[in-house]
Amino acid sequence: MSYLLDNQQAEAGDRFAALATLFNPSTFRHIEALGIGPDWRCWEVGAGGPSLPAWLASQAGYVLATDIDVSWLPATSSEVRSSEVRSSAVRSFEVRRHDVGAEPPPARDFDLIHARLVLVHVPQREAALAAMVDALRPGGWLLLEEADPALQPLVCPDEPGPEQRLANKLKRDFRTLMAQRGADLAYGRTLPRIMRNAGLLNVEADAYFPMTGPACTMLEQATIAQIRDRLVAASLATDTEIDEHLANLVSTPLDLATSPMISAWGRKPATS
What we know:
single chain, alpha/beta, Rossmann fold, seven-stranded mixed sheet
């Protein structure tokens, strides 16, 4: 399975920034509820950009940020803008290149392991999940967050006119590309079950999706720009349609929504 949204593309930075604005507050809320403290060891899997590991480093004692492509991660957290974290006490986090589906855990005995929008793109999902559970200390927490495009498939849930219909048409085309590459468009809703099957306890979950605002527009612009060549090559959309949609994003007040983000968390048994 090839990843449609390649981190090497220039638009990846805009996507990371938009995702951070849209979903970091929800992620932070979940992590705080799990009781993160200054003695915790944390592993941020598939970090992408620096905002999540930087915030974790302001809360925990040790943070490891990994990704198969670490080009968007700074060598040290001192390179991260202070506006990207909610604490003035910015401590460093370690960065390593790592493929969670193909390589053993880079370390062990973590109090918290977090992955957002990662597993759905990993061909070896079961192996990746097993590796993360194995790397937890007894009593440690795993927090997984995945989108579920099949649960709410529209980018414009309110579709009063041709601009919204075009946006939703291109969203359907995007889902087609994802499915062709093996992405499970209903994967988010399965997180509680697969976490229980992995032996985790106290499993809970919720769902959240933003609707309307500059970050939603930025995410849509960056995503369409990244996949436009593949949409055209697959004869799913035309350049004219894509150019019209991108122009609409600038000129028309579209109420854009994301797919629901399913957050699920569970705890490794204290004795294993």
